[in-house]
């Protein structure tokens, strides 16, 4: 057995030597690497779609999960426990998402005689239930916004609570997380739809549609603490983080430590986190989340009973391997008296398979070119490589780019360099958006951003070419599909008086010999890009289109219109779901519905007609 921490073998240190990782993608690979560092053997469960993924290839052992989709595989308790038993695993690490915050799965792991690398089921149940977390926060005198005493039964009760606490309100799934099951309503007219949408999304994602209501804090920042708790009850806060840049209440950029906090604000979130986790008998990694209002007031929001996607930035500024500590704590090790104080600054950019200029619609395809950045201060946690197929069944996050500097200014400078070096073709990603954001003064200098800033202020100015205009693009809200035929460009290399230059031109205007990024003009990659450009032009809805078509392969969640209905620009026509996210489809012009061709629950293909209009 390989020697590891403090000169002891992994078996002497941990009491277990073989860990099943009940997850996939980049977090599964992250845990595989932590196991290797500790001298532990890693076992992964995988689907046929993930058969060639890096987390499968690099694990010590891998077992196939029969079935398709998350429900039949990474969310299937019995299937995962069967793999653990057959593979001889002694512990289970759930990563984040999927079953990481499922107390029933945690209990099933323990009942099977395995070590659960996470908090006790009772703590998961208390904190995973937002009503329970709210009650616990009140018990430790945490700062908290007004809200319902627990889950609200229906729309009628939601309206009563909202009248009592005042608008705007936030509808929050009791068992939600990652922004799913979260909606806001500015008035009584918006609340029924917000409540029903949050409940429906939560039911699909977490198996429970219960929701509570809270006062919405307008234009807040999102602040959180990274915590670790051992079995003696010692609670350490490794660092604060800022996760304000979000779309649809899901983070896309995070940084540590949280910039521009006062000493009193940092003390408040730190001490509140310590009291809360001690109160619920927590063990392991946790994140406590807060909102910081424009008036400087802090409000507790929720606690996540797992490692977070953005744990990387805390690791970079503290030098603490948080995933390794999860495993060490699960084996009974005690934390040190303190973690190192944060040094420098780190930012994480989520490289999601999404088209930001098309309302953040999830993108699918095959990764063609994958050239990753390197150099000082650059870390990449990735779940894909060239040839990886990105489908619709799982989360759209492909990789996380983490950049660290001596201070925030240097970290941003390195981020610009790393993002410029990063080349990923074949699948639309958030890379163009990130490149624009690191040059945006509201984020890089003034820090006047809020959790709604990205979609309400920045995205209306963001173009399909990845540039930012001075004023909102006509007809663009940043939340609906658009005709992106002008967004397909190719890089053409030219020489002017011996000076080599690269210019971008629209794909439709490029000469036959022009070389698109990632391949030559006559390469298979270029042919696929040309087909995608033609498909986008045929599938997108122009202002007077007689049809509503699906922008991607998805499942229809709801249809909100019927034949004969009159709709106006911006009205919601239907909702589809792909990559665990609901996507509303809205009208681009005033029209009368002629026919509805799909129903809730139907699977649809990209470009399939959903609704037809008169005329």
From TrEMBL:
Compositionally skewed regions (Low complexity) per UniProt: 510-527
Enzyme class: ligase
Residue ranges occupied by any ATP-grasp domain in the UniProt entry: 136-331
Composition skew (Basic residues), residue ranges: 528-539
Keywords assigned: ATP-binding, Biotin, Ligase, Nucleotide-binding
Ranges of residues in domain Biotin carboxylation: 15-458
Ranges of residues in domain Lipoyl-binding: 540-614
UniProt-listed CDD domains: biotinyl_domain (cd06850)
Entry's EC annotation: 6.3.4.14
Listed cofactors: biotin
Keyword set includes Zinc-finger: no
Protein name as annotated: biotin carboxylase
